[in-house]
What does this fold into?
Amino acid sequence: MTAKILIVEDEAKLARFIELELTHEGYAVNKAGDGRAALDMALAEEYDLILLDIMLPGLNGLEVLRRLQHEKQTPVILLTARDSVMDKVSGLDAGAVDYVTKPFAIEELLARIRVALKLHHAPAGSQAGPQQNAGPAPQPGVLAWGLLVLDEKRRKVSYDGHDISLTNREFLMLKLLLENCDIVLSRETLLDRVCGYDYIGETNVVDVYIRHLRAKIDDIFGIKMIQTVRGAGYVIRREQ
Ligand code: CA
It folds into this structure.
């Protein structure tokens, strides 16, 4: 299956360069040179991934991202010229899955693209959540654990029908743990998969996300879903 990628970049030379590289890698590629065109295309077409420059004429990239996120869950990697922490934080808060600072090596961008596509488009049927409990038959893209349901396409999590509001990273972390039921995931693995493989920072940010997940799920519904394995990491075990 050919992944379809939208490149949003107003620097024509750079856009062309990325287009050539991605086409060479076998991706199907479209380009947009300003924010409004990008938003129109992103809403009208189904892309597997969007590379979105922040500094754009028309609408800036963050605004495109915010508006897009109201409508659909296409994963977005931000391209930022400014190595600005504010841009990164607002971009990730707005729902971007990753960002790449310009200038970048093309190998770095390609690696980020592969990670984002893998993380956000796990093939249907590879979902290995526990399904022993009676309930609706498993659907593709839906992970279940007891009364907890994570719907990947709709990007929704609920427990016994009650919606749980998660940030992008909390959602990704929960998804990874559910996909890897009974496998202990180290903080490094969780960090790599959720924050990007070369995230520079402390692995204890993982503990922070886990704490948020427990506060929003375990504590509220009185369950013990995410278990800490001392010295090893975290795991969600199949229910007995
Ligand atoms: Ca630009």
Observations:
- Helices lie at 12-24, 35-44, 61-71, 85-93, 106-120, 168-179, 187-195, 204-221.
- The radius of gyration is 18 Å.
- Confidence is low (pLDDT under 50) at residues 124-137.
